[in-house]
Amino acid sequence: MKITKTNKELLLLIRDDDMVAFYQLYERYSRRLYGFVLRYIKLEADAEEIVQEVFIKIWESRNKIDVYSSFESFLFTIAYNTTISLFRRRTSEKKYLEHIKSLQQIEEAPDLTNEIYFNELSEKVQALLSELTPRQREIFQLSREEGLAHEEIAKKLDISVNTVKKHITNTLSFLKSRIDNRLIVNLLFVCLFLS
């Protein structure tokens, strides 16, 4: 007869880095969690990604989980919040792509597959970025290369959100003043569609 462990027992084992207990918890909840997320997200691949992300968060925070409160409630709250975050990211990406496409409709886009053109523009931007202060460069890279929101950057660097916004605005103004607008749009388009 197989003895089934309680969530509390599994969580106590997981705190001691027990991967077997973690797998048992995954097996116990992954299908239900997938169904829960799929009702909101409607895309199977995204639902699978969220389930994986939730269990990664569980493993990473295993030492902080309160074993005496409802694990199910904790688990489904993380899943819900992760789903909302994905919605926000997708909405933001969609708006950004629509904005870039509307800018490109002004005149016909150049051949975006030309790697030489891409490298030339990229080098020009990198040279300009090297003229920024270290703090401006760091904030710009966190925003544009790592995709962090203003609030996340502010928290990471222990500065105000307004300071982050000011640095990004100043950096964009600096780049626009030194590069023709059409070249910036083309560079962004190349980055989006060659990557």
TrEMBL record:
Residues 129-187 form the HTH luxR-type domain. GO terms for molecular function: DNA binding; sigma factor activity. It comes from the Bacteria. Coiled coil: none annotated. InterPro entries: RNA_pol_sigma-70-like, RNA_pol_sigma-70_dom, RNA_pol_sigma70_bacteroid, RNA_pol_sigma70_ECF_CS, RNA_pol_sigma70_r2, RNA_pol_sigma70_r4_t2, RNA_pol_sigma_r2, RNA_pol_sigma_r3/r4-like. It holds the Pfam family Sigma70_r4_2. GO terms for biological process: DNA-templated transcription initiation. The keyword Transcription applies. The keyword rRNA-binding does not apply. Keywords: DNA-binding, Sigma factor, Transcription, Transcription regulation. Belongs to the sigma-70 factor family. ECF subfamily. NCBIfam families: Sig70_bacteroi1, sigma70-ECF. This is RNA polymerase sigma factor.
